[in-house]
From TrEMBL:
It comes from Hymenobacter aranciens. Gene3D superfamilies: 3.40.50.2300. Keywords: Phosphoprotein. The modification 4-aspartylphosphate is found at D59. This is Response regulator. The keyword Nucleotide-binding does not apply. Pfam families: Response_reg. Residues 8-124 form the Response regulatory domain. The keyword Zinc does not apply. PROSITE patterns: RESPONSE_REGULATORY.
């Protein structure tokens, strides 16, 4: 039996500690991680150099002139990949612009660890099987 190819996930997170935590969680869930990138420019460079990602996990607040929302729009236009937003912004503060990108999920950084793991797992499953229902918001 052939071993399934790990899902490649682009991770864009400008906080080094969150970058390490998310990388470890995604790897534990069977993903190959590109990143973490701290800026939109770094994320584009990773996409150009590495294997094509099947999912992007984006922090909305990034270093540099572009935020995660702008990068998400670019990724959808140029890479046609699903998005998951992970940010310190609380749900009530998220603009309609974010929801207009039709993300798989929005996960506040204040989420409990088990919820974070579960929602990442669901997002990975959705990226592997896009015909299934989306992660609940």
């Amino acid at each position: 039996m052939k071993t399934p190819t790990p899902l490649v996930v682009l991770l864009v997170e400008n906080d080094p500690l969150w970058g390490i935590l998310l990388t470890e969680l995604l790897q534990q869930l069977g993903a190959t991680v590109l990143g973490p990138a701290a800026t939109a420019a770094q994320a584009r460079a990773l996409c150009a150099a590495g294997p094509p990602p099947a999912l992007a996990v984006l922090d909305i607040g990034l270093d540099g002139p572009e935020n995660g929302l702008q990068l998400g729009r670019w990724l959808q236009q140029h890479r046609a990949m699903p998005l998951l937003y992970f940010t310190s912004e609380e749900r009530a503060a998220i603009s309609d612009e974010v929801w207009a990108t039709d993300p798989l999920a929005f996960i506040p950084k204040s989420s409990p660890a088990e919820e974070l793991r579960q929602r990442l797992s669901h997002a990975l499953d959705q990226a592997r099987h896009p015909d299934r229902l989306k992660v609940r918001r």
